[in-house]
Amino acid sequence: MEKNYDHKAVEDNIYKKWEKSGVFTPPAGEDVDKNSKTFTVIMPPPNANDPLHVGHAMFVTVEDILVRFHRMLGEKTLWLPGTDHAGIETQYVFEKKLAKEGKSRFDFDRETLYKMIWDYVQENSRVVIDQMKKLGASADWTRYKFTLHPEIVKLVQETFVTLNKRGLIYKAERLVNFCTKCGTAYSELEVEYEEREDKIYMIDYGPIQVATTRPETILGDVAVAVNPSDLRYTHVIGSKLELPLTKREIPIIADEQVDKEFGTGAVKITPSHDRNDWEVAERKGMNLHEICAHYTVIGEDGKMNSNAGSYEGMSIMAAREKILEDLGEKVIKIKPIVHNVGTCYRCHRVIEPLPRSQFFIKVKGMANKVLAAMDKGEVEIIGAGHDKILRHWLVNLRDWNVSRQIVWGIRIPVWYRTQDSEEFVVQMESPGVGWVQETDTFDTWFSSGQWPFVTLKTAKEGDFEKYYPTSVMETAYDILPFWVMRMLMLGIEMTGEVPFKKVYLHGLVRDEKGQKMSKSKGNVINPLDLSDKYGTDALRMALVMSTAAGVDSNTGENKVRGMRNLANKIWNAARFVKEFKGDGKIEFEMEYEKRLRNIVLGVNKHLEYLRIGLAAEYLYNEFWHWYCDEIIESAKLGKIGRTKLEEGFSIFLKLFHPFVPFVTEAVWRELGEKKLLVGESWPVI
Asked: What is the pLDDT of residues 260-309, one digit of tens each?
């Protein structure tokens, strides 16, 4: 053996041998014996167009550890990989690319733009796959799926048609979260709230003073509201006032949701531009359709529209300044305020609540089915109390807006009699000549929410029947409501079973000081750079060592560098074992066998209960401090022979393989083994 372990000399070659062996590819479902035990993981599909970041490296490592462990146990183990088209995220990146070229999405028709994005994604899609292989992902690449593969698209659209037949789909004009830069609506879950400094304006409305943070929407006011128990205003409830800057009269109404302590205790009601105001209008039985038509004053382009009169065409902030100027002395007081503002999770522009006709899914029934499955123990959420967080989301969930005004995605299978018609049908194919398809696409979470069953139904014959429900869904806790919850809802609704039996939520990976990684802080680590520098095994161990489900962990270059020592330790131990010629009789055989047995049982138990961080730490300590520090030293003193020394080392190589697959495979071959370690059985003693 070479004196030092050189990861660069072996990793690529080892991975090619693994792939060529076919060990990653379990038999098709129809060929799996009915008595065979299966273990299935569906890979969370990363964006097909983005390089991997450290969070991706974490999921690849954790899932690969579980997959290699269960494969060595002899179970029919399927790790089905895939990538996501990622909807608005990909289109947003592509539009930035167009902007650098002096172009815009509006320069192209729908089909051309879609084809351009498709080609762009295909050019880059191999990058993420190659990077996952670099991290050692032992996934079955013969079953690889992309969310826009035709067979996937067909099943996703069929789900929508089925939900419609069950009465769970409706189209309605509702106030939606709209990003005027990205040009699309979002669901509640995709809005990020940021604490921002702002101003609150006290404006004289005649008989009453109103407090607002949005004077630019004053022309869309339909009422002023006060709390019915606020004695300051009981005498004006039911009367009318003249809306400033207009000749229009609006009523003063009472609503218990008004906070008496906020500002003046009186608020303007602008249903077209505020969710709380929309709900007030609903409770009071106002004509929301008429309000949307005449009192929506901001357009989807982020500018004031024709309902804003002389302010038409102004940006929101320009209109705010002009309206405040025109109000003059009616602006009585301005105070600073710090409050939470909804922003676009992609471009971080302030979200504009706007009325829009969208397709919604009724979620209450589906949410209740998930809660029932959790109560019955059919699905277990592993990760620092996140089961309670999931229950909270399920109880408080609003109907899901699945319409997105983008090109890059799966088109909604809805057909209109004419372009401007309100009459529509929900079906897979066009009803005939003259009918036109809905231009909106699905929220990307609608397609990825079906990922476990659509991938298996379109993989190999019998896969869905044999490998579903899957065993473990492993992902980061921050997408629990975005993705995991939706997979549970749609999986149960469409298959009658939970899509997975366990959910393992890994924590966020922070820097060595415990700070969140961000480009602005300059503390982002590139996992592929570290893998290249210190070896993939070092990176993998650094990511999982001593971690716990649902808890953030710290990782940086120093930790990865430290874990490189483990790979070197394994290599050096192998050199000693290979060259060791001693044949002394072991003086502590029973203790030795018992210790090895307990180590195997300990690692087994930790992995079976998904305590991956503890398994890594336990194995590391037993190898370093017992086998190397005590057993190898005993061999040097003639207290243990070659046979027992090799036996123990072989067991450690198998136990370590799921965690550090490259160095263990390299050592296995150096010790003269003909078969690949990846295909060996888990130790049983």
From this structure: 988 899 999 999 999 999 999 999 999 999 999 999 999 999 999 999 99
Q: Give helix 54-72 / helix 612-621 axis angle, nearest 10°.
A: 70
Q: In degrees to the nearest 10, what's the CA dihedral of 179, 182, 185, 188?
A: -60
Residue 177 has phi, psi (to 5 degrees) of -85, 110
Give long-range contacts, CB 8 A cutoff, 24+ apart: 301-307.
301/180, 302/180, 302/181, 302/352, 304/216, 307/219, 307/220
The three state secondary structure string of 458-508 is: CCCCCHHHHHCCEEEEEEEHHHHHHHHHHHHHHHHHHHCCCCEEEEEEECC
The CATH number of whichever domain residue 535 belongs to comes to 1.10.730.10
pTM, whole model, 2 decimals?
0.90
Which residues lie closer than 8 Å to 35 by C-beta, 6 or more apart?
Answer: none
Looking at the structure of the chain, the number of domains it has is: 2
In this structure, is residue 612 part of a structural domain? Answer: yes
How far apart are alpha carbons 198 and 213 in whole angstroms? 8
Largest separation between any pair of C-alpha atoms in the chain? 105
Burial of 674 (0-12, 13-18, 19+ CB in 10 A): exposed
Contact 585, 642 (CB under 8 A): no
Rounded distance between C-alpha atoms, residue 361 and residue 172, angstroms:
11
User: Quick one: how far is CA 622 from the chain centroid?
Assistant: 36
- Closest by alpha carbon to 606, among 621, 594, 626? 621
The per-residue pLDDT for range 429-438, each reduced to its tens digit, is 999 998 999 9
Question: Domain residues for 316?
Answer: 184-353
pLDDT tens-digit readout, 352-407: 999 999 999 999 999 999 999 999 999 999 998 899 999 999 999 999 999 999 99
Residue 341: CATH number of its domain: 3.90.740.10
How far apart are alpha carbons 294 and 651 in whole angstroms?
76
Average pLDDT over residues 450-475: 97
515-559 per-position pLDDT tens digit: 887 766 778 788 999 999 999 999 999 999 999 999 999 888 999
